[in-house]
Amino acid sequence: MTGARMAAAVTTGVIHLTDRTPDVSGADMVAALVPPPQFDGATFETYRADDAYPSQRAAKEKLIAFSGGGAAAPVRRGLFSKAPKIEPTKPGVYLDGGFGVGKTHLLASIYHAMPARRKYFGSFIEYTALVGALGYQKAVELFRGADLLCIDEFELDDPGDTMVMTRLLGELVPGGTRLAATSNTPPNALGEGRFAAQDFLREINAMSASFETLRIDGVDFRQRALDGHAVVLDDEAYTVAIADAAASGLVSDDAFGDLVAHLARVHPSRYIRLIDGLATIGLRDVVTLEDQSAALRLVAFVDRAYDAQVPIRATGVALDRVFGEDMLGGGYRKKYLRAISRLNALTHS
Known about the structure:
By secondary structure, this protein is α/β, with parallel strands linked by helices. It is 40% helix and 15% strand. It has 14 helices and nine strands. β4 (148-152), α6 and β5 (178-184) form a beta-alpha-beta unit. α4 (124-134) packs across α5. The chain is globular and about 60 Å long. Residues 1-8, 70-81, 83-88 and 186-195 have low confidence and may be disordered.
């Protein structure tokens, strides 16, 4: 784990997340704007495009060029033929696709490949939290002159945050800042790619002309080797798993309901500190959530745990069933499906 990700000293034993009340300064937030540890070494070469989905290889090739790593071969033409019209390169790219098709890997590859002096990589919630901590004008001053901003999981369901980010990007692009963004669409949705791209461009209307949309089809890589459901332990197996993990690393052990209540008392921008230094997260007596606010906080927590690749051990209801049916059919469906995919993977890790 990089120092910018605020790695804690390695230790062992069991703690309770509900005992942690972390604080994160603006400087900490800025330092954390680098790819998650699992993507420290992400490159275009290590991105394994699925031959069954040509859009993956096509997107990869376009992004290599966007990052300054290559250009299209010159076209031979006759002596009197006109030079082909060259479309101007847009300052931003938007990677449109479902869960687990490698969008974040490609986004991190852009970050690593672009020869930039000042570049930042963060989730949408990390950027909006930073704006909230520093104030809008200070955030503009911080990012002004940056060569590249990578925004993972661009959220479209909060009009206020979307407007703030659109304004921020609008102030940076004229100064030469390049942009790369991703977001998710629900798998098997009718018109998945087309409607997702339309949603994104509509919500960032003032900035839509600055982005080229690249479609990435595929199957969720997290599900390819899994049985489709999160792993559930009985009480005895859970106790053994926590004890074994605590012998070699720092482990948390909390009742699910207590953790959900605690997340309401900690700002989502600080969730990364909640799991700082953890080797395993333990959750006892998981139940299906019916409260929307609690569910959305859990999604933010899961995102941080997944970024840090911290395994989860749990008892009770399977974590892929933690969100109620009404939620999965509602406006935040995309978030919940992404979280389920990640929870499933973390219980198998």
